[in-house]
Amino acid sequence: MRLRSGAAVAALVMLSVAGCKQDTMGTGDSGPGATAGGGSGTGSGGGAALTAAESLTVKGRAPKTGYSRERFGAAWADTDSNSCDTRDDILKRDLKQVKFTDGDCKVSYGVLESDPYSGKEVTYKRGASLVDIDHLVALSDAWQKGAKYWDASKRIALANDPLNLLAAGASANRSKGDGDTATWVPPKAYRCTYVAAQVAVKKKYGLWVTSAEKAAMVKVLSTCSKQALPTGGNPTNAPARFHAN
Known about the structure:
Blueprint: E1 14-17, E2 20-23, H1 48-55, H2 86-94, E3 96-100, E4 107-112, E5 122-125, E6 131-135, H3 139-144, H4 152-159, E7 165-169, H5 170-176, H6 188-205, H7 211-222
Antiparallel strand pairs: 1-2, 3-4, 4-5, 6-7
Helix pairs in contact: 1-6, 1-7
């Protein structure tokens, strides 16, 4: 899904595991690379991502009928009540050299030093941005795999949960569209972390997967079998003051 105090992006660390690069790009305590205890990588939670993927419920994809972005509330709602919208929270978390228009909330400039989807350096400038905030589990994919049946507060929570959000270069992100693991994955350098994050989000929110999607998740995570399962993020229900159509 395109526009897919903050901690800075940690360095991308690659460890060779069974022929796959064990990637551990941390993005703060509630980002896709975070694990139990606030760390990232293999740690004490090593292998949990593969185990979680194998435990996901398998069902067929439901129709997209009734889906709209508005079903997940207004874009970038301040569900964590820190007076900054969710998009700026993620920009602050994932970019380096961050500058603000005023105060310490509205990001005007920053550098994505290593785009997780292309490996390239991407510059963010407000109003002419080459950086998107990706929903790792696309909202339309979530709609077809359980979110259609939720109440609004849970859908709003998913749309604004830092665990499900990642700054990424716009070009590479938009090639993803609303694909799941069976239809789109990033390059190998970030693939294990990416799939582990999708598994974590689907596990946290009780979303199901298709048989093809589960097989793709297990295939990727089997090549990096010590990959930890990301944890953290926001509660799975947004505050009552938020509403969705």
